[in-house]
Amino acid sequence: MNLNKFSGKLSVDFGGMQLLRYLSLGGNNLGSGEVDEMKFINSLVNCSNLLVLSIGGNQFRGAIPHSIANLSTTAQSIYLGGNQLHGSIPPGITNLVLVHLSMQINQLTGPIPKEIGQLYNLVRLSLRDNQFSGRIPSSLGNLSLLSELYLNNNKLVGVIPSNLGNLKQLSSLYLSQNDLSGTIPEQLFDITHLSIVLNLAQNHLVGSIPPNIGNFKDLSIFIVSGNNLSSEIPNEVGICSNLEYVYMEGNIFHGSIPSLLSSLKGIREIDFSRNNLSCEIPKFLESLRLEKLNLSFNDLQGEVPRKGIFANVSAISVIGNSRLCGGIAKLQLPKCPNTNSTERQELSSIQDTDLNCKHIVGCNRVVIFHFLLGKKKER
After folding, report:
1. How much is the pLDDT for 235?
2. How far apart are CA 252 and CA 193, in angstroms?
3. Paired residues of 24 in beta bridges
4. Are 294 and 271 in contact (CB under 8 A)?
5. 52-90 pLDDT, tens per residue?
6. Which sequence spans correspond to the domains of the chain?
């Protein structure tokens, strides 16, 4: 009975339906606004064959009754998301043998019960878009079968537990829009099965992205925007060969755009805006099949490429980089110095020595080479 137009109070007594296996009422408009209207769950305790309780996407109010912990041990899936439920999760829910537990988009509060870590058969846990507070319980690292974990858009604090790295079957991890702090634990990058999303955006994370991000060979979406991450963007991002979307805006990354990004043949969107990236925009970005590229508000310099994504002014943004020049006319950037003029060549040479990162690296290598050569001759 999903996705109908049922409305009003659910006043059915399910106590006499011992053979009931599926109660699927999701996507209706059920609910009376009464604070105790979830008490109908009490009558489901007698349904000893119940497999699925699905009442998501309605207007149910009130607290989740503690009797939910007494549902049949055959129950595999509970979907309560998209209602107006409040209060906390009854810790006794771990009496059940659940595979799917979804309580997203409600008004649930309090800490996430550590007892959830005893639901060893869980494959999907969604608690997103609530008001849960406190720390992420480290016991979640015991859920070895978990494939999807959604804790985003809550009020969770503290560090990301390192033992989430034990979730070797995880394909999607959403921890965004919380108040998490500390560094990203390296153990997260050992979840080599992570193939869909890693979303850590809009927290207070610090430190660098470890080089073992290259373990994510199958990851499609990587999001760490809106944190306080620093250091250089690791070149190993380019080893994540299946990446399609990379969002790292709003951090403190510095240095150049990694050269190994040229290996990301399936990349569609890159957002490195609002960082401290410097050096030139690499030409290889022209050859990627990008649909959107945002490099705005950094410290990039030199000539903007003209081909590929750079030929589509609506698909790129390079504003807020005062030392860029050239590019297509619609970008309205100043012309680059005319290298045909001897005087400008000399000026450009001085500027390149001071500013152009590639020339700096090249000059350093030449100096080191001659230094070592001189040492050899002295011997």
Report:
1. 96
2. 29
3. 54
4. yes
5. 999 999 999 999 999 999 999 999 999 999 999 999 999
6. 208-336, 339-379
* Angle in degrees, CA 334, 335, 339, rounded to 5: 145
State how far the Cα of 38 lies from the Cα of 361, in Å rounded to an integer: 67
d(CA 258, CA 237): 8
Q: Is 6 helix (H, G, I), strand (E, B) or coil?
A: coil
- For residues 225 and 265, what is the distance between their CA atoms, to the nearest angstrom? 22
The string of DSSP codes covering 174-220 is: E--SSEEEEEPPGGGGG-TT--SEEE--SSEEEE---GGGGG-TT--
How far apart are the C-alpha atoms of 246 and 236, rounded to whole Å?
13
CA 337 vs CA 196, 280, 328: distances in Å: 45, 15, 15
Alpha carbon of 315 to those of 78, 274, 335, 368: distances in Å? 42, 17, 21, 42
Amino acid at site 39? K
Find, among 186, 133, 185, 140, the residue nearest to 167 by Cα. 140
pTM: 0.88
| Confidence label for 17 from pLDDT (cuts 50, 70 and 90) | confident
Q: What is the DSSP letter of 344?
A: H
For residue 91 the two structure tokens come to 């810790």
Residue 355, number of CB atoms within 10 A of its CB: 16
Sequence-distant contacts of 147-152: CB under 8 A, at least 24 apart: 147/123, 147/171, 147/172, 148/123, 148/124, 148/172, 149/125, 149/173, 149/174, 150/104, 150/125, 150/126, 150/174, 151/112, 151/127, 151/175, 151/178, 152/128, 152/176, 152/177, 152/178, 152/199
| List of residues 6+ apart from 254 with CB closer than 8 A | 230, 231, 232, 275, 276, 277, 278
Topology (CATH) of 208-336: 3.80.10
- CB-facing half-sphere around the CA of 114: CA atoms within 13 A: 6
Coil, strand, or helix at residue 40? Answer: helix
Identify the CA nearest to 248 among candidates 223, 269, 219. 223
Residue corresponding to tokens 């849960």: 132
DSSP SS3 for 86? strand
